[in-house]
Amino acid sequence: MVAAGAVAPAGAAPSPTALAPAPVGATAADAPSASDLPVFEYRGVITDKESMTYNPTDEFIFPSVFHAGAYLDDPLGEWYLYYAPHDSPGGISLMYADSLEGPWTEYAHNPIVENEWLPFYEHVSHVSSPDVLWDDATDEVLLYFHGENSTTRWATSSDGVTFDDSGVAVTNADGGQGTTETSYARVVEHPDPSSGYRFAMTYMQNRTDNIRRIKVAESVDGKTWDVRPDPLVVPDAATGTNVSGGNLWEWEGQLYVVYHGSTGITFARTLDPTMTQVGPRWELHKASGVGDDVGRVAAPEIVTDGDETYLFYESGDRLGATIAWAQRDPDAVRPPEPGQDPDPLREQCSGAASDEFDGAMLDPARWSVVRAGSARHELADGVLRVPTYPTGVAGASLPLQVVPDGPWEVTTAVSVSPAERFQQGGLLLYRDDANYAKLDLVHGSLGPRLEFIWRQNGTDRNTGFDSVVPPSDLGSTFWLRLASDGSAVQASVSVDGVEFAPWGRTVDVAALGATGVGPFAMRGSATPPEIVASFDWFRWTPTAEEVAACGDDEPAVEVQTATRCLAGRAYVAVTARNEGDAAATVRLVTPFGERTVADVAPGRSAYQSFATRSTSVAAGEATVDVVGPDGAQHGSTSATYDALTCG
């Protein structure tokens, strides 16, 4: 049995440097990919609110699974499931079963840990977020939980039911100045055997900016902890403002950190044993929207027992959640990651205002220049070269195109190598000299930084979320993108021209009120030497009408169906493979529900296993509707499936 809370160590020496941000693109040919992750299918709810005896707040969160039969002499069941309400009074609770597939029995005397436990602590508003593991050194169960949100605590037990000792593990004071929450901890045996620590903790830290991150702490005895200064995972555009529920998990020899975001999706990122190198963010699991499988997927706990792998998680809205479970479908094909793009650099089709910089001067029909009298940019050999002007934005010459209304996206390839303070080059979104947002590579006071800085009424929004150490594989040429959905602008960066990763926080479109966008370069003053930022092109993502004009082939799909039995129930599985030359949105439709998958890249598949909620299913037909990148319907394809009786 391997659980998310029991990773197998594999070693590399720890790095003394600060944690690096996730690499934007994989560099090794044999590196793991999103397609290596398992596909989980929803199986149901464990904590039925109407039947639970201890249910003070009608919500249950943060499942932790413990293999009691592997460690305890006379357990209540082979498996223990710890969970808790969150709101006052909370209360650490227990269920048990002889199989991970249930049925689960509620412990008769919940809660096993309450919000008042003298002499260890006086009354707190709540205790919640349990996580449990076995300590081989003491032959005891170690329990971690929070109460208040500012304090993560430990407790010990010989039987996993009665806890007789407790103390404080980590508090706000350990997280550094500005920390306001220290909770939702998961603890595992340290994956790096050379670290000198026995245990590693991932926990949620909130700060005064109300942005939640995942941090790392380490311990020799599981009770006294050292907190690393930098976060392991920070929010991005896909996660929303917060990330939490961080857990370590090993799958097919690769270590991952799994977690959820504000968007209600559970993500996975590769992680090295030293817990310093975090890979790209991949979607691991989200609700299908079919039947009862709706709402958030949060606080992931993954357990493998024999050939079966299970995902336990909190399902539903934040303050009305329940514990649900899903099971790996070994026959499933993982859908493509959102954002996979058959034409990431808009080489096959670009918007009408795009510029390849192949003329002798900027086209005045497309471009205007702020402070044109001091402009020294040059076009030669299909490249726009912009000198680093000896000033800030307020004094630089700025070539700009008009920002369109509604959604838009613009991308450029830039080559710049800032080596002295404040040399920089990138993309600028501009209203006036006191109001702009810039995405650039800069040599700051602490060295190179990739930053997306919003200046509003003369004041910069500039924190550790906005100005970040560049990925280790960032070369002298890289790709920058600004994209607006009409409400907010998101910056993205690519190191390979294939995969783009969100960078920094979004900028409010209305608050900025930008009218122009274009390349820029500057160096703050005349002190550092002048260098040049080179831009290979400036391309707008085409509108639906422009895509149609480009003559993209209509997408086509190959549909396959299968019926199978899982846990005694009949399921209808539908796979649709995109055989066209452009990304497409497909809608899988059966009598038992439907699912829409966006941006299915050419050669990739969309998949869904639909639960019939019966032990048998009659022969029938599934339909796949296809929508092309131009938004137009391109017809439907149908395929029959066979009848099946289970059991």
From TrEMBL:
Q: Which GO terms describe its molecular function?
A: hydrolase activity, acting on glycosyl bonds
- Spell out the coiled coil positions from the record: none
Q: Which Gene3D superfamilies did the record assign?
A: 2.60.120.200, Glycosyl hydrolase domain, family 43
What are the Beta-xylosidase C-terminal Concanavalin A-like domain coordinates in residue numbering? 355-540
Q: Does the record carry Cell wall biogenesis/degradation as a key word?
A: no
Top-level taxon in the UniProt lineage: Bacteria
Entry protein name: Beta-xylosidase C-terminal Concanavalin A-like domain-containing protein
- Keywords for the protein's UniProt record, in alphabetical order: Glycosidase, Hydrolase
